[in-house]
Amino acid sequence: MEKQLHLNLLSSRPPMAGGYQSGGYQSGGSKMKMGPGRKRDFSPLPWSQYFETMEDVEVENENGKDIFRIYCSGSHGPVLLLLHGGGHSALSWAVFTGVIYSRINCRVVAMDLRSHGDTKVKNPDDLSADTMAKDIGKVVEVLYGENPPPIMIIGHSMGGAIAVHTATANHVPSLLGLCVIDVVEGTAMDALNSMQNFLRSRPKTFKSLENAIEWSVKSGQIRNVESARVSMGGQVKKCEESTSSPGVPHSIGEGIIEEDEEVEEESNKKRMKEDDQEVKKESIFTWRVDLSKTEKYWEGWFRGLSALFLTCSVPKLLLLAGVDRLDKDLTIGQMQGKFQMQVLPQCGHAVHEDAPEKVADALATFMVRHKFTEFKEGFLC
């Protein structure tokens, strides 16, 4: 089985049809709509459907102020501090947040990491593990002062690596537990050489946010349509440029959405006419983060990660999309009972997006077992 770098990118497994439907929570988001052209609904969904509040946290640095965007839900219970993968944003946790918040007493804080999402920092090129881990500690300090509540850090891919670095450096003194999702040192290090080729194979631009959402689902990057509809807005941004301008790569256009040939042909003719009239005004979307430029930090994120994870003294949960991710150090540590592990099959790399209910169930059970919190009244586990 092909090994991949865990940078929240394309899984080696083929995409499933449809998408994981997360119970009754915005269940319509995953359904097929049988309108003209038999289109599925790839329209974006707002963050406010999943989080209660959004705010910008100002952090003082020697170079001035850095501003970190966070999304929050809840007012009591332990804090689940959610760290996204490379290229993604806090919005990748949206559907998961709605599910976990319905299961256990908790607070949720999902954070746009440095240079990602809507976070604005003075030195956006510094994505070292040390700097990003310090960011986490500073945001927690601004939010909660000297007496922060119990905090469980949950990180996916790059965010999982940063979660481990944050924990081992003791940047969060009230750390309750640690959950790492689908990032393993051995697999990540093995795949470093092929990652640039993968990044080059992705579309450079999209004609609309809907097209970006559709690509993410059909490529298998995010298999849950609902999650893609809310999270892709955190991965791409609008840029006002003509697609006919020199240096602007060809974008993924509307045509891939249509699934009826006659409707597609008619729509293409209409679009070509509109494009001729509006080409100078056309908006295209491109990636918010150029992941290819982060290569110099990859080894720092992942090398030695398994040993660091095992040395964290708090209770630990490792969630994987496949047992093939497990390297030698973690295999030994798991046999010694140093952490709890669960494999969630039929998921791509974005496990918490593909199967938010399964991840929420695993995390809720883990936290209740360790007496970190309790199930909400009326919830049947």
Describe the protein's architecture and organization.
The protein is built from 13 helices and 12 strands. The protein is of the alpha/beta class. The chain has an 8-stranded mixed β-sheet with strand order 1-2-4-3-5-6-11-12, sandwiched between helices. Strands 8-10-7-9 form a 4-stranded mixed β-sheet. The longest helix is centred in the last third of the chain and has 18 residues, at about 260-280. The chain starts with about 50 loop residues before the first strand and ends in a 12-residue tail after the last helix.
Summarize this entry quickly.
It contains 13 helices and twelve strands. The chain is α/β, with parallel strands linked by helices.
Q: Layout of SSEs?
A:
Elements: E1 53-61, E2 64-73, E3 79-83, H1 94-103, E4 107-111, H2 129-144, E5 151-156, H3 158-168, E6 175-181, H4 185-190, H5 192-201, E7 205-206, H6 209-218, H7 225-231, E8 236-239, E9 251-252, H8 261-278, E10 284-287, H9 295-302, H10 305-311, E11 316-320, H11 328-335, E12 340-343, H12 351-354, H13 356-369
Parallel strand pairs: 3-4, 3-5, 5-6, 6-11, 7-9, 11-12
Antiparallel strand pairs: 1-2, 2-4, 7-10, 8-10
